[in-house]
Amino acid sequence: MDVVVIGGGVNGAGVARDASMRGLSVALFERNDLAFGASGNSSGMIHGGARYLTYDPHVTETSCRDSGNIQAIAPHLLFRIPFLMPVRKGIAKNIYFHLLDAFFETYDRYQPLKRGKTHAVLSADEVRSLEPGIAGDLVGAMSFDEWGIDGARLCVANALDAKERGAKLFIGVTVEAVERREGSGEPVAVRYRDRLTGASGRLTTTAVVNATGAWSPITAGLAGMRPANARVRPGKGIHVIYDRRLSNYAISGSAIDGRQIFIEPWQNMTIVGTTDDDYYGDLDDVRATSEEVRYLVQGAARVFPSIRSARPIGTYAGVRPTLYSWGKYEDNLSRDHQVIDHAPHGAPNIYSMIGGKLASYRLFAEDMTDVLAQRFDLGVHATTHTSPLPGGDRAVDPFAFAERAGVDAVAARRIVYRHGSRAERIEERIARRPREAVTVCACEPVIEAEVRYVVREEHPRTVADVARRTRLGLGACGGMRCAARCGQIVAEELGLPPREGLRQAARFLVQRAGARVVALGPDQARQEALAIASARSELGLGDDLDDEASE
Ligand SMILES: Cc1cc2nc3c(=O)[nH]c(=O)nc-3n(C[C@H](O)[C@H](O)[C@H](O)COP(=O)(O)OP(=O)(O)OC[C@H]3O[C@@H](n4cnc5c(N)ncnc54)[C@H](O)[C@@H]3O)c2cc1C
């Protein structure tokens, strides 16, 4: 191989794609699943980051610019999110309102880069007519606009494109060591192990890119370097999930310590986020706590009280691989990105990608690949901003798709959202086997043909991986109605014993319950425990799953 990329988050998948497009032979290793880390657990915004304008305008500029590029290459994956930022009355608040107006005037200048709308100043009456659920005696609100995205789909699309351009994907396979040549310190090979089968191997390579996000210091250690050579300031963020869109506007508010938080309509649900706390725990098992949930819900309820009577259906958590800085308050850390060349650390041809954002991943990948292009003397520039990602080449009408395929219009809409023009490949499956139009997950909804297509084409190995790609089981029922069927399909398609499919389903249910229980009251939590126990006994599976689920 010319390059081994370690880490299948958005940055690793982005580099694998760019480097393959420029003609390098590439292998991408991901220890868990594509988008398992921060990329699949973010706030899901391809935004400009208005907040960064005050201390890092360069990041706002690059995020807005790359957001525009991402829209061009994956238009099917983006959706507009209008924001309301209400301001309460009070002398200081009145002045603050005018300052905010001036601030957003500056932000407006960046909006054309991402096809954003300029901000609007709304009176209190206008705010209430748009969203009657907003509480407080208001001066008014600023409205501005951002783009949402499914980060997991973005990772998958980049990895698939890389594969179609010749890259080898090793998903669920962890790099255990980077062998280096004595003397020069250059990489020779990576040693790896499949975490499901236990099979191990070795792959020779000329260069290594460490794109492991918050794991970067650990990965530096695997290459025999000091962890501090690829230092990050890991910032844990959690979200609470609600089972529907509680508002069609994202509403920003503040938590008890003054931190900005938001209630965001995202796909067909609502998320409340997010926290930002230094994190030193297990990166393979990041979970929201009930304290973090209460902190967010308390802040959200202050601006949107009815959130307290809405039904939380879960939580998720991720760790930001933020650029290292000592002594800074987490919120004020730079969201910029950096390519580290480890030659000064005695390891030429090994590079680490630190920091960044989903919104500027493509640019970060381009910066990294420019370094590789120079190393390999390629003289080829990136075209990742003009070449569509898989499915992004043309629009498909979901209603026509629904009619032709004989599936429900909502299911069709969701398939087209996730797969763009590749939805037609799912349609072809249905044309050959009409019974695959049957719904597997009613909450999202997801049909059987999509599950089978994804298992064959997108490298999932477990029910949880299918959920990441299709959102199956991530809705209100938490997988209770669909995980077992999905497990059967995964087992059939991958040639696994049927019992393995059931084990995977049960493991998924236990994981979902664990993420849900911290957002529930004690009575609901008891009900959930009973439901899970009965699901396990129906599937004939025992307590050993507890250990597996937390592996
Ligand atoms: C709560 C939260 C909210 C956010 N919101 C936004 C937002 O709205 N918009 C935005 O633009 N950005 C947002 N971000 C930031 C953004 O998500 C991250 O900057 C970005 O996803 C980082 O991508 P990455 O590829 O570097 O890391 P990750 O996505 O974390 O990927 C690293 C991968 O490396 C793998 N790995 C680790 N070790 C190994 C090994 N030895 N072998 C093989 N694989 C390995 C891991 O399994 C993991 O999948 C948010 C982040 C968080 C946590």
Question: How would you explain this protein's 3D organization?
Answer:
With 551 residues, this protein is of the alpha+beta class. It contains 17 helices and 20 strands. The strands form 4 sheets. Strands 3, 4, 5, 11, 12, 13, 14, 15 and 16 form a 9-stranded mixed sheet that branches. Strands 6-2-1-10-18-17 form a 6-stranded mixed sheet, with helices on both faces. A hairpin with a 4-residue loop joins strand 19 (439-441) and strand 20 (446-447). The model has no long low-confidence stretch (mean pLDDT 94). Bound molecules: flavin-adenine dinucleotide. Residues 6-12, 29-32, 36-39, 41-45, 47, 174-175, 211-215, 219, 237, 274, 318-321, 356-359 line the site of flavin-adenine dinucleotide (FAD).
Throw out a few tags for this protein.
single chain; 551 residues; alpha+beta; nine-stranded mixed beta sheet; six-stranded mixed beta sheet; 17 helices; 20 strands; globular; binds flavin-adenine dinucleotide
Q: What structural class do helix, strand and pairing data support?
A: alpha+beta
Q: Give the helix proportion (percent range).
A: 25-40%
Give unreliable regions as ranges.
Answer: none
Distance between the termini: 31 Å
